[in-house]
Write a structure and sequence with these properties.
Elements: H1 2-56, H2 61-121, H3 128-167
Helix pairs in contact: 1-2, 2-3
């Protein structure tokens, strides 16, 4: 009975640690999202004021048209930069959560395999087939998870290729999405 309580306590601690890691990752992602939006909003307001001032000082229709054309191109590039920053943020967040999930799945698999082996050692004679079926089911589940993980990575690669192809003709932004 003592070993079961100890195993349960270890299981609970592991789950709490995993929950805290997910919480930390989610908090970090939310902070990054907030900072990206705050920087973008601040830069957007400053740019809008600059553009309004420039338009207000235009001397003729040609200058006004030229300014509007230039501003439209600059604004489109800034919007593209923001979209790239959002995509980068989403990709980074998804990658971090995927790493956490994969680590948790690996730990659960290890713990479950150890528990099945421990139970098999103390099981009555003739129950080997039941434990073999359990191990086979675990193996099939792991193979299914691997297939889903590979498919998910392929979808991510396709999405990245699509984004790259879509934005390929426009100049890439440097570090800042709002600069």
């Amino acid at each position: 009975m003592f070993a079961v309580n100890e195993d349960f306590s270890t299981f609970q601690r592991t789950n709490l640690d995993s929950l805290l890691k997910y919480s930390d990752a989610a908090t970090e992602a939310a902070e990054q999202w907030f900072e990206l939006n705050a920087r973008t909003a601040k830069a957007g307001v400053a740019e809008a004021l600059k553009q309004v001032r420039a338009l207000a000082t235009a001397k003729d229709v040609q200058e006004l048209t030229s300014l509007q054309t230039g501003f439209s191109q600059a604004n489109a590039e800034k919007l593209l930069g923001f979209a790239r920053a959002v995509y980068g943020w989403a990709t980074e967040t998804q990658g971090e959560l995927t790493k956490l999930a994969e680590a948790q799945i690996a730990e659960i698999n290890r713990s479950l395999a150890a528990a099945v082996d421990k139970a098999a050692k103390s099981a009555p004679t003739g129950s080997e087939f039941a434990f073999a079926a359990i191990k086979q089911a675990m193996s099939a589940t792991n193979q299914a998870l691997d297939a889903v993980s590979k498919a998910s990575k392929q979808v991510g690669d396709i999405a990245e290729a699509t984004v790259s192809a879509t934005t390929g003709g426009l100049p890439a932004k440097k570090k800042s999405a709002t600069a």
